[in-house]
């Protein structure tokens, strides 16, 4: 056998036409004649080389060709940079087809409808190898890929392979670099990934590779394909088996590794099981515990040339999501009917929220993991404290809170003080619950940071001093102590206790005996006798010192010294038993601060009938 195989497109003269002269070009514009589409042969090849986004695409195409040829297995051998693929299919009938871009050997209508072959599979291999050998049905072609891509004729010789086919590639050095999938240390892992869902057996250097995601008989029939494997468990016996809510999506025997982000969200699509090292196994559930969606080739088409993304992906993904949502909704209803409330919540509460089936939880207890008790709302720079509850909460009339801004609570607000004093329960993820959930009727929407501009119908708490000592107005140059927080005048009231009364009649009033609270209604700072230095320090930190000023600039650190003096003054003030004692202690401890504040002037102190201290 000594025939010649031409390399190129189906028209051998494409790209070789003589340029027209100016006279010929001008004359052509005045003539009426048909114009046909032309393709540059050299340009097409150059463009094709840049289209493959993965340097392993050629492997998928060669494996697909073996499967289409009716092979029952593919033997892959890889030694010293030489990659050989041997299959037991019916072989390659026409060698010219291998070297014709855009023309597939699989031209019968049934194959075209179900497989959508592109006719570029072998061409992909030309860019991956320096030399290539193809043997099938008694013939052989052995050539350098550079000669093939230069469109040089190839000589067809007699070969030893009489059935099936054998393709040998001398891979380029670039594909065998250390971090490449076809580096000798990585190749076995690469082919394990390719084999995991492939419908026929793949052997690598003589060892059969597992295919746990391969499509088998049975499964749930969807419009887009077949869903099988570890489907959502609906009975106790099914739950006792290893199971995961992950879904692996497969098209034409290969896992789709590039799925749209919005497709991944419901519930949890595992796009890539290819990496099997220990780190990946910790992050991704084992394939045998997951469900596999095998997409229907006739309804879902892959995009040229890498097959790992879909044509019209947005519409296809949206349609698949709807189908899966309907399927799993039915399964969740079955699971709720078959399982105890506790078992159902532990297994599927989060899944119900992700699949927009939250209404199934409306008459069920609140999951313990979703509820916390406030123990302490911290000052800035500290950590707030929450206490986990034990056991799920059955439907009750208990009052809950929601939407608290945990990231920036105001520790001296009446609301924050009330929440910590009453150890009120907070529902995490409250907004995800269905509007018909029993807890919604007993939940108060709370902002832990009070603001003057807040809506009047927001949850508020009024702070009232109990057994208060006379109001005290610290003095600055302008006659009243002025803080930047809300930029308003305020007085400090020392008292035995602070009574906190919420504006929701369902909640009781409480008294606290160790706190520093700012009352929004009266614009007074309330400090209990038992307040600690930390309570008072927190008050000043919250009001002014280390946050941003009204214009967004950082505070000067020298403000720290002013705050220290204020803390010392207030600490002396609130420990006195009478106004006279307060003044005496205050003057002894801080006369230097007052003298400085008044510009060195002499002053006198008096107490009015109302108990207000005045300095003149």
Automatic annotation (TrEMBL):
Residues 1-13 have a biased composition (Polar residues). Signal peptide: none annotated. It comes from the Bacteria. Coiled coil: none annotated. It comes from Vreelandella rituensis. Residues 1-24 are annotated as: Disordered. This is ATP-binding protein.
């Amino acid at each position: 056998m000594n025939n010649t195989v031409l390399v190129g497109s189906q028209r051998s003269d494409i790209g070789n036409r003589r340029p027209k002269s100016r006279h010929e070009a001008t004359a052509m514009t005045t003539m009426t004649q048909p114009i046909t589409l032309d393709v540059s042969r050299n340009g097409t090849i150059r463009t094709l080389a840049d289209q493959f986004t993965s340097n392993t695409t050629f492997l998928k195409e060669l494996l697909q060709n073996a499967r289409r040829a009716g092979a029952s297995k593919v033997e892959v051998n890889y030694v010293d940079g030489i990659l050989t693929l041997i299959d037991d299919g019916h072989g390659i009938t026409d060698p010219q087809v291998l070297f014709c871009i855009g023309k597939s050997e699989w031209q019968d209508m049934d194959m075209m409808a179900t497989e959508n072959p592109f006719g570029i599979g072998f061409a992909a291999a030309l860019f991956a190898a320096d030399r290539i050998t193809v043997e099938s049905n008694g013939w052989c072609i052995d050539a350098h890929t550079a000669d093939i891509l230069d469109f040089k004729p190839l000589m067809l010789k007699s070969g030893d392979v009489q059935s099936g086919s054998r393709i040998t590639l001398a891979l380029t050095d670039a594909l065998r670099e250390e971090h490449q999938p076809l580096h000798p240390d990585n190749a076995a892992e690469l082919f394990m990934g390719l084999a995991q869902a492939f419908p026929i057996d793949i052997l690598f250097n003589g060892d059969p590779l597992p295919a746990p995601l391969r499509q088998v008989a049975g499964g749930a029939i969807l419009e887009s394909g077949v869903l099988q494997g570890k489907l959502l468990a609906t009975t106790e016996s099914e739950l006792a088996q290893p199971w995961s809510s992950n879904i692996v999506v497969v098209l034409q025997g290969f896992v789709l590794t590039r799925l749209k982000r919005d497709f991944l969200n419901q519930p949890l699509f595992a796009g890539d099981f290819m990496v099997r090292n220990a780190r990946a196994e910790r992050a991704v559930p084992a394939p045998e515990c997951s469900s596999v969606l095998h997409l229907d080739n006739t309804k879902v088409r892959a995009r040229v040339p890498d097959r790992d993304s879909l044509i019209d992906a947005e519409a296809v993904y949206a349609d698949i999501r709807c189908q899966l949502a309907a399927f799993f909704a039915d399964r969740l209803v079955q699971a709720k009917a078959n399982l105890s409330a506790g078992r159902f919540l532990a297994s599927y509460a989060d899944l119900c929220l992700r699949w927009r089936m939250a209404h199934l939880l409306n008459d069920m207890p609140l999951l313990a993991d979703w509820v916390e008790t406030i123990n302490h709302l911290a000052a800035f720079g500290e950590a707030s404290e929450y206490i986990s509850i034990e056991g799920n909460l059955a439907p009750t009339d208990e009052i809950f809170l929601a939407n608290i801004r945990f990231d920036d609570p105001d520790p001296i607000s009446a609301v924050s003080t009330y929440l910590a004093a009453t150890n009120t329960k907070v529902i995490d993820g409250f907004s995800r619950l269905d509007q018909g959930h029993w807890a919604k009727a007993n939940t108060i929407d709370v902002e832990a940071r009070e603001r003057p501009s807040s809506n009047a119908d927001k949850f508020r708490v009024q702070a009232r001093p109990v057994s208060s000592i006379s109001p005290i107005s610290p003095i600055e140059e302008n006659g009243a102590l002025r803080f930047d927080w809300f930029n308003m005048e305020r007085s400090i009231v020392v008292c035995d206790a602070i009574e906190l009364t919420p504006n929701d009649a369902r909640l009781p009033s409480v008294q606290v005996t160790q706190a520093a609270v700012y009352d929004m209604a009266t614009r007074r700072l309330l400090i209990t006798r038992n307040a600690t230095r930390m309570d008072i320090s927190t008050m000043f930190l919250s009001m002014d010192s280390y946050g941003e000023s009204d214009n967004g600039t950082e505070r000067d650190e020298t403000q720290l010294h002013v705050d220290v003096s204020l803390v010392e003054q207030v600490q002396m003030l609130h420990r006195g038993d009478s106004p006279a004692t307060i003044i005496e202690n205050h003057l002894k401890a801080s006369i230097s601060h007052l003298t400085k504040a008044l510009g060195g002037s002499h002053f006198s102190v008096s107490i009015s009938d109302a108990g207000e201290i005045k300095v003149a």
